[in-house]
Amino acid sequence: MMITLKLALQSGYGNETSDSTINMLMTAFILFAGWIYCTYILILISNIIIASSVSKNKFQEIINEIEVFAESKGLSTQLKDKMRIYMDRKFQKRYFNEQAINMYVQTTASCLQKEIMMHSCSGLVSKVSLFKDLPKSLLENIISCVTFEIYFSNEVIIEANTIGDSMYFIAYGTAEVISITGQRIQILQDGSHFGEISLLIKGQKRTATIKTLETCEVYKLSQKDFRKVIEPHQDIMKIMEEIAKERLRRMYQQESGSLYERKKSTASK
């Protein structure tokens, strides 16, 4: 056996010889098995490289098709840039069949679907004070309702004095909060959220406009989906509604105070 291993590994090659048929067969077998294993590893590495290359090439093909389509329709350069940015953000320069993946996810166990969404959104949702003390199972059900959206630079996400019907979470990007009077109040960045009061108070008008300063990746939670999840838990819903009403009351008080100060300052001039 030792002679066989030495021959197979070529350790002290030329010093060891064997006329035994068994040793020769075992040596040949080990060499052949090693060759197969090395070939298998090379094939695996090649497949990984090819798969990555195919994904990138497919993405580039789609981008080229979009550019041809845009040219044929006579679309403006600005609109073509928006389409390109959207594709870059959505697919990260690698093509994947989103519809097929979504169909696969829908056929998997509901717990797996929730885990996928929890991984994507739990960090964003956990920052919302209204959701802070919710049971984990209820929070998972809420997170499973969010949808992904992309907004380009200088786009309005929500507008003041319109009826609110959704809450938003900024995953990536920067946006500004503009008051009804047109003044910038605040800058929102990665991890920020807004519109939570509209989930609990129907018919509530937006108190500010949110406008993007750059391309933003956003998760949206609609009032309809949220209430479908939370309404079976009436005790929790009542507590959340009271918190939302109190926050809204304080907000109006602050706005009234600010308006009074501005009028007072204007009058003194």
CATH superfamily of the largest domain, called what?
A: Jelly Rolls
Number of strands: 8
Q: What's the rounded overall pLDDT mean?
A: 76
In helices, the fraction of residues equals 55-70%
CATH topology of the largest domain: Jelly Rolls
- The unreliable regions are none
Radius of gyration: 30 Å
Keywords: Membrane, Transmembrane, Transmembrane helix
Domain Cyclic nucleotide-binding: 130-247
GO molecular function: voltage-gated potassium channel activity
Protein name: Cyclic nucleotide-binding domain-containing protein
Quick rundown:
GO terms for molecular function: voltage-gated potassium channel activity. The protein is α+β, with helices and mostly antiparallel strands.
Chain-wise SSE layout:
Elements: H1 2-9, H2 21-73, H3 77-91, H4 98-107, H5 110-125, H6 136-143, E1 147-151, E2 156-158, E3 166-172, E4 175-178, E5 184-188, E6 193-194, H7 197-200, E7 209-212, E8 216-222, H8 223-230, H9 234-268
Antiparallel strand pairs: 1-8, 2-7, 3-6, 3-8, 4-5, 4-7
Helix pairs in contact: 1-2, 2-3, 5-6
Outline the structure in words:
It is a single chain. With 269 residues, the chain is α+β, with helices and mostly antiparallel strands. It has two domains: 2-70; 124-247, Jelly Rolls. The chain is 58% helix and 14% strand. The chain is built from nine helices and eight strands. Strands 1-8-3-6 form a four-stranded antiparallel sheet. It has a four-stranded antiparallel sheet with strand order 2-7-4-5, with no helix packed on it. A hairpin with a 5-residue loop joins strand 4 and strand 5 (184-188). The N and C termini lie far apart (103 Å). InterPro entries: cNMP-bd_CS (IPR018488), cNMP-bd_dom (IPR000595), cNMP-bd_dom_sf (IPR018490), K/Na_HCN_channel (IPR051413), RmlC-like_jellyroll (IPR014710).
